[in-house]
């Protein structure tokens, strides 16, 4: 079964007029998909595309990558990097996409999926699913403004109606989207109930463009089951890519993590964070990563308290060394109660 998964995931996939050699991608994640996490994942490899965290479309035309905390990248990752933007004005979104194309990104991703209250209250993210016509206009405006691939990330909507995401998928394709990432949960349901994978199949069957399935992909068996049940064209990995950044390489390249993979990876991540951010912000980002990392272990809540009791990155590294003096018991499937 694992060989079947690998063979499918490493098949070429055409998105607009570009080819990616691997169908496993990093899901766009606010506050997590930053330059440091992407660099860590890149050191393991095994992915087709990486996505940035959410970037405000209003800021992008005049944003400085040297000082920005989110609109920031390494030159070598641009050829397989998609920049996700959020906003609700077609012209503003189009202007941001133009800057993204000029910088050399693989593509631009439009966020119609974030259900965080602070975003939705401003009419961004999943709130746009309440305005299908405006959503379509945004996709159309971006499509007309750039030649790079246009992605759309979206949810089921605000009610459990399987016809709604099918209708939205058709609208997005008609407006010019080249690929979709679909998370089959309603917006008010952050993660309290399992995603409804059967909706991914309905969405994929309704369009001719690739659909990346997203939601509760923890182990290889999950990936195999999603592909078989939904016929989606690829897998979008979010929280598990934070918990286990080697997951792409493990699923597609046969990478075998050793017993010390957890300590080595977290320590390496601490140094990468220090390469790209000042100490205060690096600590903040490590603490955001820590719950996902600790979800890998039995008694992860207790480990988390020890690990994040820190003011500096030196504290973080000392805490890591202390936690791993006696190797914590790893879980085969992470404790998702620690996934924020």
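^ Assign residues to that structure.
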């Amino acid at each position: 079964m694992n060989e079947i998964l690998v063979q499918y995931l490493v098949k070429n996939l055409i998105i607009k007029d570009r080819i990616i050699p691997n169908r496993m991608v990093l899901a766009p994640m606010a506050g997590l998909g930053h330059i440091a996490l992407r660099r860590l994942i890149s050191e393991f490899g095994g992915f087709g595309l990486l996505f940035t965290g959410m970037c405000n479309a209003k800021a992008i035309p005049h944003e400085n990558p040297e000082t920005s905390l989110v609109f920031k990248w390494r030159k070598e990752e641009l050829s397989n990097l998609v920049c996700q933007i959020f906003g609700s004005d077609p012209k503003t979104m189009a202007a941001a996409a133009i800057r993204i194309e000029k910088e050399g990104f693989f593509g631009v991703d439009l966020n119609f999926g974030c259900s965080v209250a602070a975003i939705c209250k401003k009419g961004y993210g999943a709130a746009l699913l309440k305005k299908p016509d405006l959503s379509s206009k945004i996709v159309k405006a971006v499509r007309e403004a750039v030649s790079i691939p246009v992605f759309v990330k979206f949810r089921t909507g605000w009610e459990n109606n399987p016809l709604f995401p099918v209708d939205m998928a058709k609208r997005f394709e008609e407006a010019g989207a080249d690929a979709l990432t679909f998370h089959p949960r309603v917006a008010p349901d952050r993660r309290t109930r399992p995603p409804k994978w059967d909706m991914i199949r309905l969405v994929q069957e309704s369009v001719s463009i690739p659909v990346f399935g997203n939601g509760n992909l923890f182990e290889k068996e999950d990936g195999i089951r999603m592909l078989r049940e939904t016929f989606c064209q690829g897998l979008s990995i979010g929280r598990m890519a934070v918990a286990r950044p080697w997951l792409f390489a493990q699923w597609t390249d046969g990478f075998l993590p050793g017993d010390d993979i957890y300590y080595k990876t977290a320590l390496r991540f601490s140094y990468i964070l220090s390469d790209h951010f000042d100490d205060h912000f690096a600590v903040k980002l490590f603490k955001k990563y820590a719950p996902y990392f600790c979800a890998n272990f039995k008694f992860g809540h207790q480990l988390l308290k020890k690990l994040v009791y820190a003011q500096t990155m030196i504290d973080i590294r000392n805490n890591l060394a202390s936690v791993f003096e006696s190797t914590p018991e790893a879980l085969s499937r992470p404790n998702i109660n620690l996934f924020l």
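The CA atoms of residues 140 and 305 lie 47 Å apart.
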